Amino acid sequence: MGLVDGLPGAFVPSTGAPVSVFTGYPLPRPAPRRRFGIGFLAGFLTATTLALLIGCGIAVATSAIHTPVHATVLTAGRTATPTGLPSGSAFPSPTPSGTIHSNDLASYAVPVPPNSRPWRTKPTDEPLNLDQTAALAKDPTVRAEVLRRYDFQRAFARHWISSTRSIVEDRLYQFPSTTLAAEFYQEDVLLDSAGSWGTASDVAGVPGGKAFVKSAVDANGYQGTLSMGLSGDIVVCIFAEELAPADSTVANQLLADQYARL
């Protein structure tokens, strides 16, 4: 059974003549083809040229619309106040310094102190990709966006519980340049200051280092502390949960030790 205009049942096998699907009567035979003169050819060529020009214009417009925005997003993210900061917050100019670190991040991390014990919920050493690093935040989607903004490369975390019952994590973030690391660090300090960590204080022995202590005490009697620093292409975050009343002494000392290793 043949097809006419994409519809089934429009061909009669006995005669081979096309028929109307709707009436069943033979369709009228096509009129004889006309010979094309010079006027027709000129009109055809003119129409074809216009179609090509319009098509090229559409292609250019479409290309502009679908141009990759990765570089634009990065540039905009570095020059504007980060999302989530209070209105009027200044975005400090980064001060990149130090070197690029090419070895495995585990080789730079502070060694686990003697008489420490491991966490029950985490391995002692934990390499982290972007998704794993973002998952450590309260909002992984937003955190992943921030990490991508600065071309995050990799991270590493080392965990232990000290002999004085401090629950510690030494986390290293690496970026492809000292400039990107510095810009990420500055934004992270601002975001922490605007969030639940509160006011930052300086860390002795770590240029530009910042320390935070949460005011809240959890159900187990622990307070959170965070000390942050920058060295070259690596941003360091030392998290220490300490029995209340806590200060940043433990985290600050570990940050100073970590800074010296970088």
Question: Descriptors for this entry?
Answer:
7-stranded antiparallel sheet; 32% helix; 6 helices; Protein Transport Mog1p, Chain A; two-stranded antiparallel ribbon; 262 residues; disordered N terminus; alpha+beta
Report on the structure:
- This protein folds into 2 domains: 3-26 and 37-65, no CATH class; 72-261, Protein Transport Mog1p, Chain A (3-Layer(aba) Sandwich), CATH 3.40.1000.
- Mean pLDDT is 76; it is low at 1-33 and 50-91.
- The protein is an alpha+beta fold.
- It is globular.
- It starts with a strand and ends with a helix.
- It has a 7-stranded antiparallel beta sheet with strand order 3-4-5-9-8-7-6. A two-stranded antiparallel sheet has the order 1-2.
- The protein is built from 6 helices and 9 strands; from the N terminus they run ββααβααββαββββα.
In short:
The protein is 32% helix and 19% strand. With 262 residues, it is α+β, with helices and mostly antiparallel strands. It is globular and about 40 Å long.
Topology summary:
Blueprint: E1 3-4, E2 7-8, H1 38-65, H2 70-79, E3 125-128, H3 130-134, H4 140-149, E4 154-161, E5 167-174, H5 178-194, E6 201-202, E7 210-213, E8 222-231, E9 234-243, H6 249-261
Antiparallel strand pairs: 1-2, 3-4, 4-5, 5-9, 6-7, 7-8, 8-9
Number of strands: 9
Instruction: Indicate the structural class.
Output: alpha+beta
Query: Which bin fits the share of residues in helices?
Result: 25-40%
Evaluate the radius of gyration.
33 Å
CATH classification class of the largest domain? Alpha Beta
Strand order of the largest sheet: 3-4-5-9-8-7-6
Q: Counting H and I runs of at least 4 residues, what is the number of helices?
A: 6
Low-pLDDT windows of residues: 1-33, 50-91
- Structurally, the number of domains stands at 2
- Name the shape in a single word: globular
Strand content: 15-25%
Please give the CATH architecture of the largest domain: 3-Layer(aba) Sandwich
The largest sheet is:
7 strands, antiparallel
CATH topology of the largest domain: Protein Transport Mog1p, Chain A
- Quaternary structure state of the chains depicted: single chain
Helix and strand element order: EEHHEHHEEHEEEEH
Mean pLDDT score, rounded? 76
| N-end to C-end Cα span | 79 Å
